[in-house]
Amino acid sequence: MSEPAVKSGHPKGLYFLFFTEMWERFSYYGMRAIFILFMTKVLLMKDADASEIYGSYTGLVYLTPLLGGYLCDKFLGNRRSIVIGGLLMAIGQFFMFFSASAGTNGGVSLMWMGLTAIIIGNGFFKPNISTMVGQLYPANDRRIDSAFTIFYMGINLGAFFSPLVCGSMDFKWGFLAAGVGMLIGLLAFVIGKKKYLISEEGKHIGLPVKKLDAKSIGMIIGSIAIIFFMLNFKQMFKSDLDIISYFIYGAMVLMPVLIFSDKSLSKIETQRITVIFILAFFVIFFWGAFEQAGASLTLFADRQTERTLFGWEMPASYFQSVNPLAVIVLAPLMTIVWGFLYARKLEPSSPKKMAIGLGMVALGYVVIAIAVKGLGIGDKVSMWWLFGLYVIHSIGELCLSPIGLSMVSKLAPLRLSSLMMGTWFLANAAANKFAGTLSALIPGGEDGTGGATHFLGFQITNLYEFFIVFIIMSGAAAAILFALSSWLEKRMHNDHIEGVSDSVM
């Protein structure tokens, strides 16, 4: 009689992983909330330089899970990879603490060390803890979708309260809080992993594959050296060459060439993979606009947004809590909407949902463009305009983000599933690097109204023109993707994959 009760609930390991991931996200998003403000206010960097560094950092964060996943599968196993990743990320946050303490007296070099450790650590941590959620359940268990829903809420919970904590104090203490948060999650994982990381059949999950040998240690050290070199290249060689852009964008070009050179691909497989690459391309425009949240929009919140409530000035970093809160509140509502449409055979296809997501990003920038039109030097807009943008963008995220990985898993040939998933992460890496490049276009300095910049021949002299760039870019991408959607649907070759499961968070 006890078996059905067990099967209807979730194993304790899920909530254990929820807790670990929540603290890791607290660490990452807490640091991200204050990072660009730290570079411009403490290290006294120009907006453009700080934006490019932000883009390089967040881009590489999405690239290193490819390396971390490979080392995990071949050598380390999930558990050891998570411990290594968590420890490196905590060390990185402590380097950021020392960087903020040093300021302009050596703080930049300490920052490179901190970013390197966080980037590599994330590569070990991120792909492995999500994998272990699925390992808790038998194959094809109906509870897996709801398990990932619970796990996803842990991610957003950590992302929600971390800017409120880390952004409420001096930068160095904010980084220290992020490091302590990572240590809390890591310590809990180390203490509880033997007790809770057990499948319902009683088997331990995520165990190491091989002993940590000289080869795997060498790969870890080599990766750290390469990332540090790329981050520090401009400073070391006094060069304007952005080798990280060439590295990330070059990989985006190389990946389709590599995959399509596989002569074993059938016509249907080739067409499905083509759909994945086309959608990955449009994803770059979505996240390139969306990820301004941690870059140009944070600078805008700090400088030209009225943040006073009842005599209290809200920190600019607090705005980064709006998106995860909106996702937590709106995700169930969006699921109901998609389910309602699905039952009436009106649910949009996955490409159309992604086009809607791009359209919502454009709409968010329409709102903020209206707010800043005619804004003078020293003038500020109401914070509610920025709140509105983030809520609209969150709706766009819920239209696009949940279906991405699902689409890859459904369309990719089984023998290429890991490689295609890596391609999807690579698109996110390119998008984040692109976001930094776009953020560097924000005009002026402290007032945001002087010092023109240029983008594809278009001169940007004020914030209104800056936000117009995002309206045109994401709006055009939405229109083109919507126009292509019927063509893409035919090349997916599987009508039944367009179901309500795409909307499961």
Fold and architecture overview:
This protein folds into two domains: 10-241, MFS general substrate transporter like domains (Growth Hormone, Chain: A), CATH 1.20.1250.20; 266-494, MFS general substrate transporter like domains (Growth Hormone, Chain: A). The chain is globular and about 65 Å long. The protein is 74% helix and 3% strand. α2 (12-41) packs parallel to α5 (144-166) and α4 (107-135) runs antiparallel to α7 (214-237). It is an all-alpha fold. The strands form three sheets. Strands 1-4 form a two-stranded parallel ribbon. Strands 2-3 form a two-stranded antiparallel ribbon. It has 15 helices and six strands. Keywords: Cell membrane, Membrane, Peptide transport, Protein transport, Transmembrane, Transmembrane helix, Transport. Its main location: membrane. Belongs to the major facilitator superfamily. Proton-dependent oligopeptide transporter (POT/PTR) (TC 2.A.17) family.
In short, what is this structure?
This protein is an all-alpha fold and 505 residues long.
Give the assembly state of these chains.
single chain
CATH architecture of the largest domain: Up-down Bundle
Overall number of structural domains:
2
Q: Name the poorly predicted regions.
A: 1-6, 496-505
- In terms of DSSP E residues, the strand content is under 5%
Largest beta-sheet characterization = 2 strands, parallel
Helices and strands: which structural class? mainly alpha
Helix proportion of residues, in percent? over 70%
Report the order of strands and helices.
Answer: HHHHHHHHHHEEEHHEHHEEH
Strand adjacency order, main sheet: 1-4
CATH class of the largest domain: Mainly Alpha
Q: How would you sum up the global shape?
A: globular
Number of strands: 6
